[in-house]
């Protein structure tokens, strides 16, 4: 017996019951418990496609910090010219 269903928004233990009774046929009763739990951190996808803007912003911030630190470290002030007297 196989069934597909949409998972509810709440977590918990759900009981699916089939209690079918029709004249002339045998009585059909089936009860199944299914637990719905949040995914563990190891069960998620490695890279989530909807998070690509966040990945790009992270790497652009890293590149910007590297560029800014490079400019600050290797910036050379102009030496003041000596006044001729």
What does this molecule look like?
The chain contains 1 helix and 2 strands, in the order ββα. The longest helix is centred in the last third of the chain and has 22 residues, at 52-73. By secondary structure, the protein is α+β, with helices and mostly antiparallel strands. Strands 1-2 form a two-stranded antiparallel sheet. Helix content is 26%, strand content 21%. The model has no long low-confidence stretch (mean pLDDT 88). The chain has a domain at 12-38 and 45-73.
Assign an overall shape: rod-shaped
Rg over CA atoms: 33 Å
Helix content: 25-40%
- Low-confidence parts lasting 5 or more residues at pLDDT below 50? none
Largest sheet strand order: 1-2
The string of secondary-structure elements, in order, is EEH
Distance between the termini: 103 Å
């Amino acid at each position: 017996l196989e069934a597909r269903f949409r998972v509810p928004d709440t977590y918990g233990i759900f009981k699916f019951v089939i209690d079918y009774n029709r004249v002339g046929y045998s009585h059909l009763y089936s009860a199944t418990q299914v637990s719905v739990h949040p995914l563990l951190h190891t069960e998620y996808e490695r890279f989530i496609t909807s998070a690509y803007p966040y990945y790009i912003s992270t790497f652009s911030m890293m590149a910007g910090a590297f560029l800014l630190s490079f400019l600050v470290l290797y910036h050379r002030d102009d030496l003041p010219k000596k006044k001729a007297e």
